[in-house]
Each structure stands twice: as C-alpha cells, then as structure tokens.
C-alpha cells in the first residue's frame, strides 16, 4: 500500500518534520519545567505574611534601652562595643 509520499517508508521531508516536532515538544517541556522551578524558588524565598526581618544587634539594644531594661551607662557601654570603640565617660 502506498502512503502519501509515494512509497511505504517516510521520505526525507517526513523525517525532518518528525524531528522538528520532537524538538519543539522537548523545548516546551524544558520551558515548563524551568518556569515551575523558578516560580517555586520565588515562593520559597518570599517572607511569610506578617514575618519581620531579623533585628540587628543595635535594634535590640535600642529596644531594651527604650523599654527600661538597661540603664544609660550600660546602653552607652554596649553601644560603643557594638561600634568597635571605647565607651565614653560616665
């Protein structure tokens, strides 16, 4: 029985078309996998709702001083230590 190319096997053009179709679908699958991975990584790296950035040591020190947990002399001494310098006088 004859097919539309005139013999029982595909002609050269048929193989090229099949090859291009395989490449096309492989590219579509690769693109979809890449998009899913990129989106999932973006979702994982996004901070949760209501999550705050971690406080810096200076922020913790300022908050403790404002709350009255440490006195001004201790605050000045600890602040100087954080900044890498000697504390000021009393």
Describe this structure in words.
- By secondary structure, the protein is mainly α.
- The chain has a domain at about 55-90.
- It is about 60% helix and about 0% strand.
- The chain is built from three helices and no strands.
- The protein has helices spanning about 10-45, 55-65, 70-85.
- Helix 2 packs antiparallel against helix 3.
- The longest helix has about 35 residues, at about 10-45.
- The mean pLDDT is about 85.
- This is SHOCT domain-containing protein.
- Keywords: Membrane, Transmembrane, Transmembrane helix.
What is shown here, in short?
It contains three helices and no strands. With 90 residues, the protein is an all-alpha fold.
Itemize the secondary structure elements and their pairings:
Elements: H1 12-45, H2 57-66, H3 72-83
How many helices? The count is 3
What is the percent of helical residues? 55-70%
Please give the oligomerization state of what you see: single chain
Kindly estimate the percentage of residues that lie in beta strands according to DSSP: under 5%
Number of strands: 0
Which ranges are low-confidence, i.e. pLDDT below 50, for 5 or more consecutive residues? none
Average pLDDT figure: 83
Radius of gyration computed on alpha carbons: 34 Å
The general outline is rod-shaped
Transmembrane segments: 15-37
Protein name: SHOCT domain-containing protein
Keywords: Membrane, Transmembrane, Transmembrane helix
């Amino acid at each position: 029985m004859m097919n539309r190319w005139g013999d029982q096997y595909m002609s050269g053009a048929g193989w090229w078309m099949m090859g291009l179709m395989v490449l096309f679908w492989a590219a579509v699958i690769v693109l979809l996998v890449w998009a899913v991975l990129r989106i999932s990584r973006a979702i994982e790296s996004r901070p949760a709702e209501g999550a705050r950035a971690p406080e810096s040591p200076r922020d913790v020190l300022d908050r403790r001083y404002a709350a009255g947990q440490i006195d001004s002399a201790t605050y000045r001494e600890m602040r100087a230590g954080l900044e890498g310098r000697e504390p000021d006088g009393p």
